[in-house]
C-alpha cells in the first residue's frame, strides 16, 4: 500500500531549503506531461514536508538521510 523511499544525500553545505523531490506516476502511463494521477512530493533535509507524508530525517557526517512513506 505504501511506497518507501530512502535518500542518502551527500552535501557538504546544507542550506535551509535543501531537500529532495519525488515524482510518482501512479498508473505508470509514462506520459510526456503530468497527468491528474501524477504526484509530486518535496521533503526538506530536516524532514519537513507539506504533503502529509510520514518522514524521518538524520544529519550525517557528510550530508543527510531522508526516509519517506508515501
Number of helices: 0
Total count of strands: 5
Helix and strand composition category: mainly beta
Overall average pLDDT: 93
- Biggest β-sheet strands, sense, barrel: 3 strands, antiparallel
Approximately how much helix is present in the residues?
A: under 10%
Q: What does the radius of gyration come to? A: 13 Å
Instruction: Name the strands of the widest sheet in spatial order.
Output: 1-5-4
- Gap from first CA to last CA: 9 Å
Principal-axes shape call: elongated
Q: Which regions have little confidence, pLDDT < 50, spanning 5+ residues?
A: none
Order of helices and strands: EEEEE
Question: Would you spell out the secondary-structure blueprint of this structure?
Answer:
Layout: E1 4-10, E2 19-25, E3 38-44, E4 54-60, E5 63-69
Antiparallel strand pairs: 1-5, 2-3, 4-5
Can you walk through the features of this model?
- The protein has 70 residues and is mainly beta.
- It contains no helices and five strands.
- The protein has strands spanning 4-10, 19-25, 38-44, 54-60, 63-69.
- The chain has a three-stranded antiparallel sheet with strand order 1-5-4, with no helix packed on it. The protein has a two-stranded antiparallel ribbon with strand order 2-3.
- The protein is elongated and about 40 Å long.
Quick description:
The protein is mostly beta strands and 70 residues long. The protein is 0% helix and 50% strand. A hairpin with a 2-residue loop joins strand 4 and strand 5.
Amino acid at each position: 500500500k505504501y511506497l518507501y523511499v530512502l535518500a542518502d544525500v551527500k552535501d557538504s553545505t546544507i542550506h535551509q531549503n535543501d531537500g529532495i523531490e519525488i515524482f510518482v506516476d501512479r498508473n505508470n502511463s509514462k506520459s510526456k506531461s503530468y497527468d491528474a494521477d501524477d504526484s509530486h512530493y518535496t521533503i526538506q533535509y530536516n524532514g519537513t514536508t507539506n504533503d502529509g507524508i510520514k518522514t524521518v530525517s538524520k544529519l550525517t557526517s557528510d550530508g543527510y538521510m531522508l526516509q519517506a512513506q508515501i
